[in-house]
Every structure is written in C-alpha cells, then in structure tokens.
Amino acid sequence: MAELPAGIRLITSFTRDQWYRSFTFVLTFLLYVSFHLSRKPISIVKGELHKHCSTSQVIRSEYAIHIQPVKMLPSESPCGWEPFDKNNYKQLLGALDYSFLCAYAVGMYLSGIIGERLPIRYYLTGGMFASGLFTAMFGFGYFYNIHNLWFYIAAQIANGLVQTTGWPSVVTCVGNWFGKGRRGLIMGLWNSHTSVGNILGSLIAGYWVSTCWGLSFVVPGIIISLMGIVCFLFLIEHPKDINCTSTSSSNDPEMHCLLPENENCVKLLHHNNGVSEELEKGKFAISFVGALRIPGVVEFSLCLLFAKLVSYTFLFWLPLYITNVEHLDAKKAGDLSTLFDVGGIFGGILAGVISDRLKKRATTCGMMLLVAAPTLYAFSAISRMGPEATIVMLLICGALVNGPYALITTAVSADLGTHKSLKGNARALSTVTAIIDGTGSVGAALGPLLAGLLSPSGWNNVFYMLMIADACALLFLLRLIRKELDCSLDQTLFKEH
To answer: By mean pLDDT, which of 115-129, 287-301, 367-381 is the weakest?
Structure first.
C-alpha cells in the first residue's frame, strides 16, 4: 500500500471536533473583522470632510463663486464638505462619533439580553445586513449631495444600534467552543480581528477618500452584508448542535481567587449568592442583576469603561492627529495610523499569553495599564519629532492600550460568562459579555467626545485626559489584583506546610 501524502496525513491527524473548532475560530474572526472594517471609514474620511485651507484659498473660492456661480457646486468647498467645513468642525465631527458610540453603548445592554433569547445565527445575520445598510447610508450623502448634519447623525445612531448584535454573538460562540485552559492565548489571537478590521477598513477607506469618499462607506457596507450571508450559511452556535465535544467545562483556578467567599482559594462558591439559585436548573437566561452578581463583573466593566475610552479615542481621532502634527494628507495619515492597530495585535496576544501563564487576568491588565500611562505622555512628545519616531511610538502605544482592552472583552468576559456559579448555563455568556462591553462602550462614547472638546485647546490636553483614564482603569482593578496576589501567597504557604 502506498504511503499517504504528507498533506493528507496532516489533515487526518486532526479530529472532527478539532476541525469544527478551527472552522468556528476562523469564521467568527472574519465576521467580526467585517464589523470593525465598517466602523473605521469615519476616522479616515474626517480629513476630507474638513480640509485645512488658508485664508487666501477661501478668498479665491469666494471670488470664483462671484465669477462663475453656475459651475460651483455646494460640495466643492475648499475647506471640505458642508457642514463640516466650518471652524467648529472638531465639535461636529465629535458629535458624529458620540452619536455612534452612545447608541452603541445603550444598544449593547439590550443586545446581550435579546441575543440570549434568539438563535445567534439569525440574530447575527440580521445585524450584519442592517450594519451594511447604515454604513453605506453615510456614503450616500456624498452621491446625493446631502449637507444636513442630522442626516449623518441619524446614520451614525442607526449604525451604532445595529452593530451591537456582533460582539455578544461572536464571543458567545467562541466561549461555547473553547475552554479555559489556553483561553487567554486563543482569544488573544482571535481578538486580533479588531486590529485587522481597523487596518483593512483604513486601507479600503483610504483608497477612495481623496477621490470619492462616499465609496469609503459603501464598499465596507457591501462587505459586511456579504459576510452576513456567510454567517447565515455556515455559523454553528454550539458544539452540541453537531454532536461535538465542548471544552468549556474545565477548571478555572484564576477566577477562584476573585470569589468573595474564597479568600483562601479553597472554598467553593456558596449557593446563597443569588446567581446559582437563579440558574439552579440551568435552563433559563440569567437576569441583568444576576449577571452583575457574578464576582468580578462590576470591577472589570468599570475598568473597561476607561480602557475603551483610550482605545476608541485613538480609533476615531488618530488619523486627524497625525494629519495635524505630521502635515500629511488624509490617505497617508490613515495608512500610518494602521500601525497602532498592528501594535494592538501583538498587545492582545501578549496579554493573553501572560495571563494564561500567571493565571491572573486582573494583574496582567494592571501591569499593562501601569506602563501605558507614561507611554502616552511620551507619545505626545516624541510623535512631533518626525515620522520615524511616530512609527515606533504607534506600535508601542497600540500594544499597551489594546492589550488590557482585548483581554477584558474576550478571555475575561468568557471566563465570567462561564463561571461555575452559572452551573454550565452558557446562555448567560451573552448577557455578561454585553454588560462588560456595554459599560466599556460608555467610555468609548465619552473619549472621542472629550477629544473633540479638548483638542481645540491643544492636543496635549487630550493626552492628559487619556493618561487620567488609564489611571482610573487601574484603580478599579486594585481590589481584584490584591485578591489574586493574596491567593497566590496562600497557595504558596499551603504548599510549604
């Protein structure tokens, strides 16, 4: 009998369960890439909506209007696209960000609860089609020559609401398929979809931003809609749906240290905390209050509020900051800003690996937040020294800012959502994920808004705000960090005796 080819031997070395698990990993990765890909264009197009024009340009434009009033279109303002061509453009652009993020924050609390009670595949597919429609709607303003601010705000609000269908759904799927053993590493790799989506969104939007910025929104809208079809055809919500083995029921040593009754890391969670009682039979979706009772949910939610404030301020304002400081056009600034997301990929993976090794999620986040604050100050100073210095600092800041954010929204959310107090009820994972990310989204809404208000007085004030936010994020983790460190000390003393 002839020897099997090496490629076939490799394929057959994996079990059926492993193939399905790998397929779910890749599919959910691509699905959420398309979500972030559709959010990025607004930050790239900002430099085109408002162009920095000199007084002489305005005078020449006004003179041209008097000479040839018939040939001058409303969209041909030398300072950008009306109404964003005025001096208060930063506030108007900030209002667009705030509209999207505020709607996203409000919708996220509802999304997890709704998603728990509907089939994830249908819920996610509908959300992706709606996201594609409202992403493209913003671009229609270009083609239909719309200059009403409320049209663009309405498009952002609608898009923010429907995009909340994505995160609880994909995290629930991944949490169902992957156990806690190497969850930090696996989800660190998986969470790079955020940065990959931002990078692709920047490149796609940047390709058309200077020639036809409407396509910078329409093309991503088409992409996420097409991925919605893929989701409908291929997504498998839970291993049991195809008789696969779930790995989500493994031990959770690091979370034991966060239990209020478990100061010495030996006692198990008592049933009188209200969570286990609520899910005693494991058949019903958990309530909002019941999810808040899970140890660590409140602390990590508040920490994420400030961590996401920092991350989303960079997401929405970094290209414009680079345009102002480095004096680059919108396309080049957008391309350069992708390095922040490249750093974010490595930061998310590094945070996952460290937390798996130490078995301490809160301590890992705390270490990265502690280093991030002074690094942000360094970025504000060094980035003015030239493009080479900016590139280095973008990579470092991206890793430190996105590391804790990635760890909390993925591995920590999945850990808490499959906490042993839930008695294996995976339906609670969607609500827990939505509470954590919804609270974080409040910070994501505030960050860009504050940046829009502070940036006219100088970019340094924006960076001071970001450093304070990092310090607050660390502050909310101190109690959990202390519990994790005390737990390790107790375990060491127990082994010595």
So the answer is: 287-301
